[in-house]
Amino acid sequence: MHVAAQQLCLAWPRRATPVRSLVLLLASLLFAGMSFPLVAALPGKANSSGENKNKPQPPTIRWSEAEPGCTFSQGDDGKYRYGLWSGDVGIVLAVDAREVQIIGHRIEPIFGVLLTLRYRGAGSLEAGPDGITLQFMKHFKVVQTALDPDDYVQKIQADADALDDETRRAVAKHPEKKQVREAQLQDYQKSVNELIEFLSRNSLRSAHLDRAHPEVSGWVFFNTDSKWLGRLKSQEEFVLRLSLDGKVLEFPFKLPPKEGELLLRKRE
To answer: pLDDT tens digits, residue range 73-93?
Structure first.
């Protein structure tokens, strides 16, 4: 044992106690040159933070009707369309004029937009729904990430299976309510099947864009079931963001664009 450790042992009271034993053990380890790795690689972590801080951020391109390459239109299908071209990339955001009102009538509280991504460059571009967000400006500026359609389909199916089990238990306890409960279950399952089919067929998927395949289109949905969102207002403000071709593209929009505005769908 090191001399300093021996001196510490001599200076400490002879009576054996748990505290004395612990101190002597720590002293022996300390003076023997041993140490305990409480935090690992702090210098490396600090360097990593510095690198991320100094890393240049991608440029942000914000939609504005007055800016070149930006367009706005009202379609006969009841949708507002916001178009933006930046370099070789073009995006069209289409949103139903009644989307805020429709949410309350869906079996799942999801907000949907239709995105079309186009590429006119000589090379190629990877595009898809990853990283797309929607910010609710009138609700603490909450940001919701786009739902993964496959994961959400599994969630919807699991909820439907749980309701089926609950209905069976309820009918077993109250046979007189069998007809009503089973009719409700059938209606719910029909809506679930329709939503699952729509998500599976029409959701935006990852794609490799080039001259042979310059465009991909599909629906992107966001969950509105959050304590920070609460009830949506008669006019809402949003900002949709997506990263594409090394840029962050922003689409600020309101629904409806003007307070009290009503966009009617043209009958076919």
So the answer is: 999 999 999 999 999 999 999
